[in-house]
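Researcher: Predict the fold of Endoribonuclease YbeY.
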Amino acid sequence: MQKIYFFFQHPTTLRNRGNLKACIAHLFEVEKQPLESLNFVFTNDEELLTINQQYLKHDYYTDIITFDLAAKGQPTQGDVYISVERVKDNARQLGISFYKELHRVIFHGALHLCGYGDKTAKEEKKMREMENKYLDLYFTK
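Model: Structure tokens for Endoribonuclease YbeY follow.
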């Protein structure tokens, strides 16, 4: 049985968690990616910077870091770390609600675990299309 968990190291509001978990599980089904377990950890800028430096050798702030923990060929097991502070900043800069931006980032992490990248312009364009697809699906339910 697949398990999706939310952990809050930094306080944030995440409403309708059951619906969100169902939508994330549906995303994995649609993408034909078996899911075993997925942890979303909501934290702050400093914690995510430390993770970025320690594990990725990057010395900058980011809104999300996704770790695929599954052995090759096994169902997905992953940890997704999200900086609530960075998401709030990004939402302000983009002129959208924090709630919508937070969900975009959540789906972004799940899509990474389904094999979508964002390193090239072509990958980033496809990632945005997929984020929008799942945002539309979630918010029109």
